[in-house]
Amino acid sequence: MEQDSKQYVAEAAGPHMEEEADLEARDPESNSLSQPLLKRNRTLSFNPLAIVGTKVSHIESLDYEINENDLFKQDWRSRSRVQVLQYVFLKWTLACLVGLLTGIIATLINLAVENIAGYKLLAVIALIEKERYFMGFIYFTAANFLLTMVAAVLCVCFAPTAAGPGIPEIKAYLNGVDTPNMFGATTLIVKIIGSIGAVAAGLDLGKEGPLVHIGSCIASLLGQGGPDNYRIKWRWLRYLNNDRDRRDLITCGASSGVCAAFRSPVGGVLFALEEVATWWRSALLWRTFFSTAIVVVVLRAFIEICNAGECGLFGKGGLIMFDVSDVPVRYHAADIIPVVLIGIIGGLLGSLYNQVLHKVLRLYNLINQKGRFHKLLLSLSVSIFTSVCLYCLPFLAACTPCDSSHADSVCPTNDRSGNYKQFNCPKGYYNDLATLLLTTNDDAVRNIFSTNTPSEYNPVSLLIFFALYCVLGLITFGISVPSGLFLPIILMGSAYGRLLGMAMGSYTSIDQGLFAVLGAASLMAGSMRMTVSLCVIFLELTNNLLLLPITMIVLLISKTVGDTFNPSIYEIILELKGLPFLDANPEPWMRNLTVGELADAKPPVITLHGVEKVSRVVEVLRNTTHNGFPVVDDGVVPPVGLAVGATELHGLILRTHLLQVLKKKWFLTEKRRTEEWEVREKFTWVDLAEREGKIEEVAVTRDEMEMYVDLHPLTNTTPYTVVESMSVAKAMILFRSVGLRHMLIVPKYQAAGVPPLVGILTRQDLRAYNILSAFPHLARSKSREKH
Fold this sequence. Notes:
The chain is mostly helical.
């Protein structure tokens, strides 16, 4: 079954070329006038499977909509002012804890990476100083191999969802997709240890994406009271036992993760707003900013401790990671040419990177389908290749004499960090390629961003560095280890940015280090398509406010150029994984289709009566996988003007609530409606917040099958409904904006004998691929629009 699921996802994620070719072979002119213009298949069907991390999982939607049944209304009316204040205080307390724990864990990860990688590099340099180059190579490769093996084994065997950055899954979760096992305690532990191992192993990946995932895991675990098997059942924690509040908390965790990665509090908030969050409001803005402020305080406290020499090899420094504020920034009219050029190059290279990475990830999907051994083999092969390149390529670079004018810099140096690595060069010379390769990724960025060093790097060395990191960036992302995209893209972009600065020479007054910063920003905008948050992150990273105007120009140009070719890298990954993410902009052809036509293409909707027989409820739950069922009442006394015996659409009841009814044996011996006090005796609002349980776990006797159950008190009486004539595009915007799980379609005309319900739509029904499979002629018009 799992093998079939993976095959389905791999096929569904790619372009539907075979279908479009079949559509082109048909002749639309052969249709008779009596046939409808839009031909469609019989049913609108889908497979609720997606790749979460590296594991194929059955996915569902989240209940972000407020379920206004009788119990909810009673609880809301009975809440005192003290309980409301407790609820607000709890949300702010958890936001504080999210920032505190994310900052502590991020600091520990940085300490572990710097010390492990630092001692490894010092041991290698000691062997090189003794001219034991082969032993240095063996030690370097073996250490990286072991570190990668630890990260890969943990991800493959214990937490497949910890592989990758985790940002696409977080983005899908905040969009309304329940990504299973994505925020568990095992995933959190594996993500922390795996990030340390993968980054310390020198792989071309960063810890920024994993830190976003780590922050989200912390937020989710705090919100639900701990891991599933050891959950704390404190009463005050039950206030947050719903998807809406957990969504807000995970948003705080994501912004805290970005803040911890880049030491950028404002950038973290804007990243959550621009990139991952689908739903936003001012109260959420305040809490995310509060969380990032706590992260900065924690980081600052640990930095003070490290400055006192208490952190081993962890370098000294402040909140600014890549400080370029010591160089004056002056602009001239001629400088607009290289700035525009670097923006165009960033957009072109970013879109090209996305396109090639898309092909590589599809290939990796095929390899990963073969089992755990192949996943491990792929990860370890990439580790060996990376180690060989990082160690051997510096031997191709020529030794450069130290510049005596830089008296404040140590040249050459054999320390683990520094701008002038001696490597295999004689005294008084340094190897510029070793300076960039035989170091940690953070130090490599710091070195290539260095200012007032126009002659430090040879153009050939920068070309080798750029080509190598392009290859490593493509083959490393997608292996079964925690990995981030930010740092590899920064390294690639800074290389061609510095090269462009060297090519401009005396024609511009902008420093080469600043060109490297602009190059990194342009490639990130060209690949990830972020602008506002990226601009602020780079300003907080480099501490140079004078870069703001040209950084804005570069980001806007890069994003515009990239958007003309393909989507952002995270949207590509979402498509590859098969996650039903609803985009903010519906396809133009969706305006030519109504929700009524979409409902006609689905199987008939399954409804329940307000007072239903237990056997009918059990039958529906056993034979379907639907998560919501419309509740209708026949023969109700209508308002004035309607026919006698009209059918009323009472609302929508969730599958989990039906399971609670069966578990608690809330059955009636006669067919009648219950009183309000009867419901409150049996159920609380806490019971209805639980989502666990399966129909197979519920035992119902034969006598109980003949009894009745009153569904009215548990039914959401105010579900979102739309008229059948509404366009699919408009319905999709509403569905996404409100965060719905179900949307009911009602008829345009109310008449005797007309059912009160046309159909029901879910997010899977609104996915473009599923619609095109049911309406093939829409695919034809779509392909014509492309041409």
